[in-house]
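Dear Dr. V.,

Thank you for agreeing to look over these. As mentioned in my earlier message, I'm a first-year student in the group and I'm still getting used to reading structure tokens, so any feedback on how I've presented them would be very welcome. I ran two proteins. I've put each sequence directly above its structure. The first is here:
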Amino acid sequence: MLIIVVLGLGSAFIYGASDFFGAFAARRVNLITATMFNYAIATVVILIAIPILGGVSSSAAIWTGVVTGVLAVIGLLAFYGVLAIRPMSLLSPVIALIQSAVPVTVAAVTGQPLSVMAWVAIGLAVIAIILLAPPPRKGGERVSARGALLAVFAGLTLGCSLVVLDLSPHDSGVIPAVWEIVVGLAVLVILWLAIRWSPARTGALSFLQPGDEAVRTLSASRAWTAAGASGLLTGVADAFVVFGLHMGNLAVMSVLIALYPVVTVILAATILRERMTKLQFVGIALVIGASLLLSAA
């Protein structure tokens, strides 16, 4: 179980940093453009990984990767849209909680075996995710209806993408991750072309545009650097996830992956000066405890 915990937490921490930089870039650059650049970098990373990590290509590996790619890119766009709306430290854990609930439910219904200690650890991790998203303080930033709806949608689609990816053959290696990223990039290119050619039809996608305040406070060079860093991290994290799912339990991996708000919250506190509460510190402590329990399970 230790290697599963390492892969799960590793992907969570990398995703947390990737999502932060992706949302950071979305405040200055058109969201579709920034995410497309993210996926282009991730594609290069995952293609380089093929001869190193390997994998057997099959119809099952391809279709699971394709379906995962469509679900993941849609969920990621909604996710970045949510984080660009803010408050980042509140909405990120909400998405993670919904995202982890879908695979955990599937794992429980399908009867995937887990020890009592592992289920206790999963429960602690879920509580940790909840504590990472405390109610907004009086007079502070509040969640808008648009942000809440996008958060639910992002969580559901990202959770479903993990369920589908878990169906990929165990000998497929990084092949499903390759298809996931390539298909995601293709979807983004199609969306980018559609928006570029038909600007009058983009009213429903207004959240893809950065706010005026963001444009004034973030330089384009920093935004593109953040988008590139996000893509590099996404490629590495995807490789971690697919190997973790092949080696471990869907419920364990999904909950560990959903701990990425720890990194997002810390980065938001240190870089964006968003305040961390005592409950968030308790949540981080529970993350450590849950990880130790899973390692011993």
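The second protein is here, in the same arrangement:
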Amino acid sequence: MLETRKLTIRFGGHVAVDQVSCAFRPGTLTAIVGPNGAGKTTYFNLISGQLPASEGQVLLDGEDLTRLSAPLRTRKGLGRAFQLTQLFPHLTVLENVRLAIQARRGLGLRMLSVWLQHRELLDEAMAVLGQVRLEGKAQSVAASLPHGDQRKLEVAMLIALDPKVYMFDEPTAGMSVDEVPVILDLIRALKARGEHTILLVEHKMDVVRELADRIIVLHQGQLVADGEPAAVIASPVVQNAYLGLDVAEEAVA
């Protein structure tokens, strides 16, 4: 479903993502891991369109998205949750999710269409909020929510968009121990449906071991390992990367 071909970005003389080619199938969850500065979030930004590629391609269902903007890629089916929450802070929780559903249906700002379907949109938004256990805060202003609830709301907006590809960039970052299971249960449920491609950047290896069907490892912008979780985690190249050692030197040694 989703594929990157020799995807590359340079910032001056620095190559942040270097010729990364990878394909991701529907019904699978792939964890993208690596030490800080390995290029994980930059790779996400290239896929979702927040950054323009210096070289290479991003394809979805065989269609080349490389020259499309981030909003157009979203319409094609790429859904992205960020490390820092991206919400409409002055709108209510319910309105945030309603707008995501409205966008998915292509209603835009056509007020007559929105008004005619207003009750239906709100009912669907409340159902999504129920999935993330925020229905009790539907009328709260998004900016007033604690950090953990803002993370849940962003996931709710992503679910409301119903993308083909879900991209989660450290979805549990900053959440309390009690809040983390809600997000992980949502990701498990999405995976169980078997219809979506799920990409997950996550530093917590216990989460990766539990959820991932596959792990790819980035180190200094390059793809250095790809395979089943147990084998990848046990590989010397991954252990070296997480210890901050030079992979090339270790390979020679």
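From my reading of the second output: The radius of gyration is 19 Å. Residues 247-253 have pLDDT under 50 and may be disordered. Does that match how you would interpret it?

Kind regards,
E.
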